[in-house]
């Protein structure tokens, strides 16, 4: 339903350029709730504003419902935008209009008659649960009620796509849950494709079918939430289901298991303990219900080193769990390590006798250890140490 290809957005000023989007490739399937998450400044809001061309991208293409928006302008672009509804973070309601009149505004711009506008606005306010607040002004509404009016206004033109830019970030947790439930109901009942921008992982877990992680203007990871959980090393899975820092203590094998689908309802850990007489320690766990299914991650410590736990780990994998060994797995020695150790041992054994002395000729013997001089011993300078020195003395004589 929504596809961006090599999307770039560069904001230019007199002194510098800011790259907000750097080659973004994104695909949102029809009928899904798709979440884009990332920290502030990652480029999320720039992306969603480029999708409906409130910001025209510097380069790249945006296609919505088979229409390439970046190739349109003027009246053609305005007609194509009627298929896209937009929910804003700060509601953007007109304070001089009632809730019903705010919902009627886009229909008024489209040229619909007063009666038709009023009928459509009343239906939408009832859909979002505000039929009894139709004549209230924004100042008389709570934050959650204002956002419901904003959602009703976004649906006025019967769009196929709904864009949500941090729609719940200014709301309390209970109101956030109610708004997310409303978006999910609209997705199911009206067949809407929803693209939402958020920095809250709880939003993704509560409502999204698929998700993408943005960083520095790029999509670094994307996919269905359930599939990401089963992907070893998934950064987005770690963000969605954090387990904290891995322990550094020694003496056991620490593993992380990911479960979803049928395996989430099985007493696998209890079966492991009974079958192999092991006492696993639960170091951390995160379990959620996503799309009606329980999914999550768990960190366990098994007693003993990795070799002692090969069979129990295999048992967990046979039960359909994704298992990653965090610590305790032996690492293969680096290439050449054994040879280097043998050489070093040999060098220590032989001492410095095999090593040339930089202060002596290559054929010289190593100097003896220095001992305190006595009157009974001649000076070292009177003692020729090589045949060359003896020859030189004979020539001088």
UniProtKB/TrEMBL annotation:
Gene3D superfamilies: 3.30.70.260, P-loop containing nucleotide triphosphate hydrolases (3.40.50.300). Keywords: Amino-acid transport, ATP-binding, Cell membrane, Membrane, Nucleotide-binding, Translocase, Transport. Residues 345-397 are annotated as: Disordered. Residues 2-241 form the ABC transporter domain. It holds the Pfam family NIL. CDD domains: ABC_MetN_methionine_transporter. The keyword DNA damage does not apply. One of its GO terms (molecular function) is ATP binding. One of its GO terms (cellular component) is plasma membrane. GO terms for biological process: amino acid transport. Residues 361-380 have a biased composition (Low complexity). The keyword Lyase does not apply. Belongs to the ABC transporter superfamily. Homodimer. Forms a membrane-associated complex with FtsX. Part of the ABC transporter FtsEX involved in cellular division. Has ATPase activity. This is D-methionine transport system ATP-binding protein. The lineage of its organism: Bacteria, Bacillati, Actinomycetota, Actinomycetes, Kitasatosporales.
């Amino acid at each position: 339903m929504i596809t961006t290809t090599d999307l770039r957005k560069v904001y230019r000023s007199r002194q510098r350029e800011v790259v907000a989007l750097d080659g973004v490739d994104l695909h949102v399937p029809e009928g899904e709730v798709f979440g884009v998450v990332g920290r502030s400044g990652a480029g999320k809001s720039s992306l969603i504003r480029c999708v409906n061309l409130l910001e025209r991208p510097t380069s790249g293409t945006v296609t919505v419902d088979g229409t390439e928006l970046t190739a349109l302008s003027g009246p053609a672009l305005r007609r194509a935008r009627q298929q896209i509804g937009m929910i804003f973070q700060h509601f953007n309601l007109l304070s001089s209009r009632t809730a019903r009149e705010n919902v009627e505004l886009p229909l008024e711009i489209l040229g619909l008659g007063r009666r038709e506008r009023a009928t459509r606005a009343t239906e939408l306010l009832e859909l979002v649960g505000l039929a009894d607040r139709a004549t209230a002004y924004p100042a008389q509404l709570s934050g959650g009620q204002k956002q419901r009016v904003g959602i009703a206004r976004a649906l006025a033109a019967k769009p196929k796509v709904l864009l949500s830019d941090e729609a719940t970030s200014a709301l309390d947790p209970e109101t956030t849950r109610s708004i997310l439930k409303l978006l999910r109901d609209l997705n199911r009942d009206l067949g809407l494709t929803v693209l939402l921008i958020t920095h809250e992982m709880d939003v993704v877990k509560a409502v999204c079918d698929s998700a993408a992680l943005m960083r520095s203007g790029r999509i670094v990871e994307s996919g269905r939430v359930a599939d990401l959980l089963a992907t070893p090393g998934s950064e987005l899975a770690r963000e969605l289901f954090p387990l904290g820092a891995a322990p550094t203590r020694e003496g056991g094998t620490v593993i992380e298991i990911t479960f979803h689908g049928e395996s989430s309802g099985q007493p696998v850990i209890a079966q492991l303990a009974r079958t192999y007489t092991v006492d696993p320690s639960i170091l951390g766990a995160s379990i959620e219900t996503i799309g009606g299914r329980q999914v999550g991650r768990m960190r366990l410590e098994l007693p003993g080193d990795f070799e002692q736990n090969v069979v129990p780990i295999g048992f967990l994998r046979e039960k359909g769990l994704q298992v990653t060994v965090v610590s305790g797995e032996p690492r293969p020695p680096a290439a050449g390590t054994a040879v280097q150790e043998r050489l070093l041992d040999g060098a220590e054994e032989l001492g410095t006798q095999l090593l040339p002395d930089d202060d002596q000729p290559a054929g010289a013997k190593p100097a003896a250890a220095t001992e305190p001089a006595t009157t009974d011993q001649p000076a070292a300078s009177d003692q020729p140490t090589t045949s060359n020195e003896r020859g030189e003395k004979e020539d001088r004589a």
